Amino acid sequence: MIFICNVANQPSVSGMGAFAVAHLLYSVTFLSSRYATYSASSLNRFLYLILLIVGGAFYIYLFPFLQKAPNSDLLTPGVGIYFILITIMAALAIRTRHAATLLGSLSFMVSDASLALQVFKVLPPIEHGQIYVMVTYYLAQLLITVGDIKAVENKDDFSKWKRS
């Protein structure tokens, strides 16, 4: 939940909305034809369940702090929707069966969770907390990009092999 904060350093609903759209676009990418379609294995279902439990538990833990935030009437449901979207993105990353894509999605979740803990004052101010958020955020972008490039390369290799 990377937020663009306003001048008073309060979370911005529009910033959260922009990142929610990014998660939707990643989700659509993970569903695209560049990733091979696999049937859901029992391991995948187990990982989906873990993601759902972790995402839900984190939101429940964060809920009382959201209630104290300015604009809580917008932020509380907005953060809930955001958690649903990022959890769906991570679940679809599992489906891709690309380690870099999955690790990137999980790094994105860690980045957003650590930011939420700081923005909603769940934790006391963390020295260099923003650096941790940004390192995990950029790591997420890098890993998702690498996974996507690998998916395209594998698709191209498979297409060449199939034609020969």
UniProtKB/TrEMBL annotation:
Pfam families: YhhN. It is a multi-pass membrane protein. It is an enzyme of class 3 (hydrolase). The chain crosses the membrane at residues 12-31, 43-62, 74-94, 101-119, 131-152. It comes from the Eukaryota. The keyword Transmembrane helix applies. It catalyses: a 1-O-(1Z-alkenyl)-sn-glycero-3-phosphocholine + H2O = a 2,3-saturated aldehyde + sn-glycerol 3-phosphocholine; a 1-O-(1Z-alkenyl)-sn-glycero-3-phosphoethanolamine + H2O = a 2,3-saturated aldehyde + sn-glycero-3-phosphoethanolamine. InterPro entries: TMEM86B-like. Belongs to the TMEM86 family. This is lysoplasmalogenase.
